[in-house]
Amino acid sequence: MDIRTLPIPGPVVIVPRKFEDTRGYLAETYNAAAFDTGVAPVRFVQENHSLSTHAGTIRGIHFQVPPHAQGKLVRVVRGAIFDVVVDLRAGSPHFGQSAAVELSAEDRKQIWVPIGFGHGLCTLEPDTEVVYKLTVPYNPASERGIAWDDPDLAIAWPIGQAEPHLSDRDRRHPRLAESTKYF
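Above: the chain sequence. Below: its structure as tokens.
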């Protein structure tokens, strides 16, 4: 596994090993020992799979608050996304900063989103499927979000002038400046 850092310390991009032959390839998408040594010692307890039928679908910026805060390992199994992490750690010198990376089924890259970071994505292709492993089960009472279009975050979502496809909940998230500091 190849580990690549982002401008914000904590999240990392992971490129799994790939074994090719005349039949195609096999990719090792997760190896507990390698992950624990190279990224972070974690235990995944839940895996989710989402489908976004439209390009330009924005999901996020989501996180869960303690004691149900989650780490996420995100990968794309069909299509492509513009994936965003936001540092929500109150004492961090990078608080409120974001970093983005493109992930696709073709490149097999994954992103590790540790506790203390918000996570969002924008689909770049129709019928994009995303799979993510979680360190803590989903807890509806602990779910929070930050406005995807918060001008203080200045995230350059790749939608141009198009109206994004959003859930009603994602339309109502507060700006970071209006949010409680949980981490």
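The first helix runs from residue 32 to 38.
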